[in-house]
Amino acid sequence: MDNAIYIVFSATPTGMGSLIRKATRNRYNHVSLSLSRDIRKMYTFARLHRAIPLYGGFVAESILRYQSFAGNAQVKICRVEVPEPQFTYLCNCLDRLWNEREEYIYNTPAALASLVHLRPNIFRAYTCVTFVQKLLARYALAGVSEADAPTVRSLERRLSPYVAYEGPAPVCAADWGEDAYPVETSTRYAVYTTARHFGRLALRALGGIA
What we know:
The chain is α+β, with helices and mostly antiparallel strands. The protein contains six helices and eight strands, in the order βαββββαβαβααβα. The strands form two sheets. The protein has a six-stranded antiparallel sheet. It is globular and about 45 Å long. It starts with a strand and ends in a 5-residue tail after the last helix.
């Protein structure tokens, strides 16, 4: 592992991803962060299961998400060097987030509001963009600020000097690891988790904790 992080912009091979790209007129709809050049494992906020598009949180994505269902997704990978001790702090932060992942949820209202340039803040709730943007800003990397527009397009422009690769998602030996994306779920579970997700969002938006 070198002292660098890899910011991965992707055109995710899902119906939701396609709709977002059409709405934003942007080539990419998703962004993740990896600690390895081969991006086998990426951290982000996204759906937890393939079959439940509105239930999301902090995930450790396998690159297989981009290879298994609709061919290789198109990606843009930006390499950002991170000096010590920021690199160690960032790795520790990711470990802490993963250990506490049940407390973090996907900020669905923010994802929708970003289309009209609004920024609803909800306790321990992020989108893929606000998560990556916050980490880069916290550790003073690539000139990113939390005041920047929380959109994939804006972050992509900010990181344009750091592009290392653009094309189909790299093919490498990988497994699903901690990524629960392909796990089959029942309709009952999908309804329950989706309802619970929006209930937690509502409570947090009103100032409660859930």
